[in-house]
Amino acid sequence: MHYSQFINGEFCSGTSPDHFDVLSPSTGALLGSYAMASPADVERAIRSAKAAFRTWKQSSTLQRSALLRQTADELRKDRDQLAHQIAAELGKPYSEAQKEVDVAAEMFEWSAEEARRLYGRVIPARAQGIQQIAQLEPYGVVGGFAGWNAPAITPSRKISAALAAGCTIVIKPSEETAGVALLIAHALQRAGAPAGTVNMVFGHPADIADQLCTSPDVQMITFTGGTEVGKRLGAKAAAHMKKATLELGGHAPVIVWRDVDIDKVAAAAVATKYRNGGQICTSPTRFLIHESIYDAFCTQFAQHASQLRVLDPFDPQAQMGPLKNQRRLAAIDQLVQNAQQSGARLLAGGKRLDRPGFFYEPTVLALNDLTADAMRIEPFGPVALLLPVKDADAALAEANRLPFGLAAYAFSNDMRLAHRFANEIESGVVCINEWQASLPETPFGGYKDSGLGSEGGIEGLREFLRVKCVRQGGLA
User: What is the pTM (predicted TM-score) of this model?
Assistant: First the structure.
């Protein structure tokens, strides 16, 4: 058993009799076994965060900025070890895992810079001798939840923003990538994070969620994960009057118009679609292709997808690794089979690779209607759905049909049409003629069932702050 919790500045093992295993998605072999946190462990983490908040909220923005910068430096020092852990636990190719560490460090660096620019405002008064101020104050103890698909980026974004705002945090990252999260805790400890400012617990997800959502000492919840779980957690937080930011699932549409360079867009689309095996909430999924170029685009897309090298994540030639677990493998295979039964044409892939681990071929499906389950259920895997559309109205209708709106993409050299897509697609992020849906400095949040609030950018940092209005007159 390895230590599995980080509470009040110290690493420790959970005191629950239960444990959880972390498996290699490349081989199915055991990577580690960890003792779960008991309710008493979680309560100790909450108390530690509450005690630390009393002093951390009084810290200067320069102090917070210095800590966050130092954490970014520590993550960069650990780049190879962290990338190795990401590749081992998640299955992401090692070169991509290195880039994830770089972005995680940038999350801390961005928050360090913005911590010094958390301005309130002075409001003109109606009478002389009165001063009116809108000042920003940290919420307090934050309860955080992060998924396994971006095991360095997501915890780093939540922790860095919370600390920059003056909050403290109890975060439960995914048990399936616990080693990555604990390495982030190591970086924070070496950087000098005061005891209790960051606490990390692992255990039964539902039990920990209940405890954090109902504790009177936790003032805010931040969650990244599936839509259904997020709705339940958000409702529980609302029942206890807690602020909640929710970054949930998507089903990203991609409109490809008739005036594009077909091979150029298809090649870039394949590289983006199958990054991390498609296990990214912003992954392009429904490709809505103008009917005049549909056949040509399908041919080019399938050709590029078929050429992807699906290998062990530590192989330098790997372009895609395994899926995270057996559940994802089974879910993807079921969606692909259902699509074919519903009339979709299989253009590439379509089956599990015959080797140890959870490898699946990059899959391309051409559809003529919306009957396949995959057209309403987010695949969250290496499946691209290609559908012809006759005009802009049809493209927008399909782009906005589902109750999701996290990320969307559109490609056209007609700027008037691109402007229409940017304004009429119902999504928190719309990328026109490019693929980068999220950066440390840009706001990232969903419409409809894809979430509440923002992460990233100054908007994401403001989520951890509440507004107090102070009016002050002359002496009584």
Answer: 0.96
